[in-house]
Amino acid sequence: MHIRHTPLFRKAAAVAVTLGLAAGITACASDGSDDDVITIGSTEADKSQWKVFQEKAKAAGLNVEVKGFTDYNTPNQALSEDELDVNQFQHLLFLANYNVNSDADLVPFGATEIFPLGLYFKDGSTVADVEKAGEVVIPNDPTNQGRAINVLVQAGLVTLSKDGLLTPTPADVDTAKSKVKITAVDASQTVAGYQDGKPAVINNNFLEGAEVTAQEAVFKDDPSKPEAQPYINVWVTTADRKDDENYRKLVEIFHDPEVQEAVQNDTNGSAVEVNNSAEELQQILTDTEAKIKEQN
């Protein structure tokens, strides 16, 4: 699964789910048995988008093998150890944390999508309505709290004591200059807050429980804004292979309209297609890694 808002930072054994494009394609490109096979690591190998993607790749003359993993740590380790050619499951912030904490140098070579984090209000439809309510419920877990606060910053509802914080906490909020009060609760309880009539920032994972769709958000983070860019999902490989021509073709194929239609079906319309260049993604990654090192 692409990391949306609640990545599970646990280490588990990877379960290989091979989805070959043609009979007989069973070997990894990295084992030297078939250098024409591009092996992709994913945590959502069973999604329909990959079936469509593989059909398009085959038509483009590429042999693609997708390997599924059951956790979010193993695909990067497998890539670092040359067990994969590329992976596609994570956003730039997750990649930056992996590189910094593992002293690795994995790089993005193409963008896929972003899953905007939204602000929802049962009794209002505008940011002004939220301001009148005076309070916003947000998730309190480390992964989502900082992003939720930055969503409110982008909406003009919250001011931070210091600009540009990657993962701000409620302690970083300048309450005197902010237009709403923040109440941080367990991510699952943001649904209860919403149902009780309070504006709430709700993870995509819990939208169904709140009986609301991503399209009903009063406000959501903008992929073009600096605060949201670390959450762009990306194609990733090792530094020495980032300019591989066939890897760039993978990016083009992913943005094929039929593949994108499958992505929307898989994500209930919550994914927003992103087309940042490899150079732009690398700059965002470099900046994010620097902020992580600074905060550490």
Largest sheet: 5 strands, mixed
- Return the average pLDDT rounded to an integer: 89
Low-confidence blocks of residues? 5-33
Strand content: 15-25%
- Which bin fits the share of residues in helices? 25-40%
Strand order of the largest sheet: 2-1-3-11-4
Task: Break the fold down into its secondary structure elements and pairings.
Blueprint: E1 37-42, H1 48-59, E2 63-68, H2 74-80, E3 86-91, H3 92-102, E4 106-111, E5 113-114, E6 118-120, H4 127-133, E7 135-139, H5 142-154, E8 181-185, H6 189-195, E9 200-202, H7 207-210, E10 219-220, E11 233-238, H8 245-254, H9 257-266, E12 272-273, H10 278-295
Parallel strand pairs: 1-2, 1-3, 7-8
Antiparallel strand pairs: 3-11, 4-11, 5-12, 6-9, 6-10
Helix pairs in contact: 1-9, 3-10
Keywords: Lipoprotein, Membrane, Palmitate, Signal
Protein name: D-methionine-binding lipoprotein MetQ
Main location: membrane
Characterize this entry briefly:
The protein is α/β, with parallel strands linked by helices. The chain folds into two domains: 29-115 and 228-295, D-Maltodextrin-Binding Protein, domain 2 (3-Layer(aba) Sandwich), CATH 3.40.190.10; 118-220, Periplasmic binding protein-like II (D-Maltodextrin-Binding Protein, domain 2).
